Amino acid sequence: MRHAIALLTPLAALLALAAPAAAGPSAEAFASVNAALAENHIRPRYERLSAAAEEFEAAVEPLCARPDSSTLSGAEAGFQSLMDAWMSAEHLRFGPAESFMRMHRFHFWPEAQGKVGKAIAKRLAAEGAASTAPFRDASAAVQGLLAAEFLLYDQNALVPAPAPAPAQCSLLSTIAGNMRGMATGMASDWWSGADPFIARLASPGPENPYFESHGEAALAFLKSLHDGLQRIVDLKIAPVIGKDAGKVRPNLAESRLTGRSLWNIVLNLEALQELYTGGAGPGLAALLPKSEHKLERLLRKGFRATLATAESIEGPLESAAADPAQRKTVEKLRVQAQALRQIVRDRLAKALDLPLGFNALDGD
User: Fold this and answer.
1) Which of 72, 99, 216, 333 could form a disulfide with 211 if both were Cys (CB 3.0 to 4.6 A apart)?
2) Nearest to 82 by CA among 188, 183, 186
3) According to the model, what pLDDT value does residue 193 have?
4) Is the domain defined by 2-17+26-202 classed in CATH 1.20.1420.20?
5) What is the distance between the alpha carbons of residues 319 and 183, in angstroms, rounded to a whole number?
6) What is the C-alpha to C-alpha distance for residues 328 and 143, in angstroms, rounded to an integer?
7) Would residue 133 be called left, alpha or beta, if left means φ above 0 and alpha means ψ between -120 and 50 degrees?
8) How much is the pTM?
9) Measured between alpha carbons, how far is 114 from 154 in angstroms, rounded to an integer?
10) pLDDT for 326-352, tens place per residue?
11) How far apart are CA 228 and CA 268, in angstroms?
């Protein structure tokens, strides 16, 4: 506890210097930043996700037609690229990502212990009968990235070396096509069709079922920032590292089979940092009044420091947490990410006059 307080002290001291929050931004300011984030933050991420899903589906085809070490490596590379793309977009959990439960079907995590493996075994056992219903109606545990990871990397279960057997590969191909459909569907629903979600974001009002005001639309981005940080702390770090090095629970690590639990967090943090600071255009930081310049600098510094800590850790999170030489750095990462979340919740939300309320991760 003393260690955590010591790590928090510099941030807390800087936070105390921030001026009291002024009135929230104007509707015009909210609208401008919302439009910029949609174009420069959301669009490229869903375009990348769609492209990566198409490439993964294309890489699975030669694996199933000619399974060998070369085609398996190609499918694994495609999977890694798709996982990278998802981790960079995972925080965008509103709008088309919510439709048809896409975000849960695309990445069914955290999972109940062993549920993905059991769902795959059940699907394979059903053979032809399982294909009579649309695949999107199947268990979410068998539809997305976790199921694909299981089929490609779990050498002790369903995947004989050097590549999946025909039944498994057929299921893998179905999963790849399903993810391609979801990824392209999310991008299309944002930007195309008779009622694209971008129109809902840009034109709030009493007739809009999603947003009554530009501020409420901006709140969706603020929640993405806050909840993304909370997911890192509460779902990706704390359950895995336990209270000490002897209580690490590697089976709870995200992407355990591919050893990329820490890399996922780095990608999450990079995306959240850009949501705040902006990339090709303004981010949420642009909404802060000049009187909040200390808070603005504090958050920028906090993101840089947290990312630097994550990047300094070697190996998967679960291995580093069990390593006495790295354990303190892992704990530092948890504390820094938690401090960032608290500043977003307690200070940024107040400065923007956007109450965060509760979410599904808050518990009772």
Assistant:
1) 216
2) 183
3) 85
4) yes
5) 32
6) 37
7) beta
8) 0.90
9) 12
10) 999 999 999 999 999 999 999 999 999
11) 7
